[in-house]
Amino acid sequence: MKIIYMDNAATSFPKADGVSDAMKRFLDEECTNVGRGSYLRAQDAGLSVIETRERIRDLFDCPDAKHVIFTGGMTVSLNAVIKGYVRRGDCVLVSSFEHNSVIRPLVQIGAEIVRIPANEKGVSDLNRLSEDLSPFRLCVHTFASNVSGMIQPVEELAVRLRRAGVPLCIDAAQTAGHFPFSMQRIGADAVCMPAHKGLLGPQGLGILCLTPTFADRLDPLISGGTGSVSDSERIPNFYPDRLEAGTLNLPGIIGLKAALEQADFKARRAHEVVLIARFLHAIEDMPHIRLLGYPEADRRVGVISLDFLRRDNGEISYRLENEYGILTRCGLHCAPDAHRAFGTFPKGTVRFSFSPATTKEEVDSAVEAITALS
Predict the structure, then answer these.
(1) Is CB count within 10 Å lower at the N or C end of the chain?
(2) Is residue 220 within 8 Å of 42, Cβ to Cβ?
(3) What are phi and psi of 324, to 5 degrees?
(4) Is the pTM of this model over 0.90?
(5) Partners of residue 138 on adjacent β-strands
(6) C-alpha–C-alpha distance, residues 48 and 280, integer Å
(7) Structural domains in the chain?
């Protein structure tokens, strides 16, 4: 039985061509650290890190490559912003669809959480948001829901926040690599993204893009050795060192560099829209399935959640794998607030998520299986 992987919202598979080869070559032939030696191999590794930062800066229109920070993952990037800026009792604005990587740190530090109301299709309803946003310390908002795939009005939100002097941190876990966007045009102060999803890189590596002004307002989440100003007991006051203590995930960065060298976000987005439209058109008249979100492909990323009204969603996901070889994710997707907003809490949904490697034939196979099982 052929395996059809449709859990790319959790992690992409397959990775971009050359990622594993680049990582293996680094581990087998170089495997040096950066900032800890002046010999040629260490300098070459350092140059690869710089080139990767610059590539990210160019792809996402970040203000400065020095403020492209590498972290231990998407969750670490979000924690670096939240715990580096928010204090107990601060009021933080979020969407109604945030991942636990946002909500749990806020709860842990004792922040007051205010959720932007959502409309019935899973989009933040900014018309129901207070005109006075000045009481908020920070806003953290997903760019696209990891449950429904709905793209959110972050650019419009940023305009309103900027007038009130409130920084905006964007969770780009489901958008980075799926379509082009400009950090500066949006007006975000921070953008968090993982290497292992739409960017088609390895796991265990996160990216945090910051404006210089907001970077200076963050307390470092982690402190320690940086390979620079080693005579001082204080954290360096320059970037990226200030926010990158410890040894970087160099094999991961090398793998990400290989993935980014092939990145064509416009082509990926065009392919993804075709797949989404094909899938949604095929299921639109199925009577016993509820689609979360709007049915228009251009309003979504390739993340589609279905609620099977006559069947147990867990059973459907199990049978999709065992009878049809289709790998999906069932449940709450680490985003219980999103399911509360959609009315699918606590049972969750069956989530299908695409990648650049997903084919029309695989979409058709998924539709055939859904038809048979629903």
Answers:
(1) N
(2) no
(3) -130, -5
(4) yes
(5) 92
(6) 41
(7) 4-14+264-373 (3.90.1150.10), 19-260 (3.40.640.10)
Tokens of 211: 């404006």
Sort strands 303-308 and 289-291 into parallel, antiparallel or unpaired. antiparallel
Residue 304 CB neighbour total at 10 angstroms: 27
The DSSP result for 326-353, as a single string, is EE-EEE-TT-HHHHHHHT-TTT-EEEEE
Of the candidates 335, 262, 355, 350, the one whose C-alpha atom is nearest the C-alpha of residue 304 is 350
Burial class (CB in 10 A: 0-12, 13-18, 19+), 243: buried
Confidence band (pLDDT; 50, 70, 90) for 134?
very high
Taking residues 25-35, report their average pLDDT. Answer: 90
37 pLDDT more than 80? no
Give the pLDDT mean for 49-56. Answer: 97
pLDDT at residue 204 above 90? yes
Strand order in the sheet with 349-353: 289-291, 303-308, 349-353, 329-331
Specify the pLDDT at position 255: 98
Strand bridging mode 349-353 / 303-308: antiparallel
Q: Per-residue DSSP letters for 274-334?
A: HHHHHHHHHHTT-TTEEE-S-S-GGGB-SEEEEEETTS-HHHHHHHHHHHH-EE-EEE-TT
Contact indicator for 305, 331 with CB cutoff of 8 Å? no
In this prediction, residue 316 carries a pLDDT of 98
Which DSSP state fits 27? I
What pLDDT score does 302 carry? Answer: 98
Percent of the chain with pLDDT over 90: 93
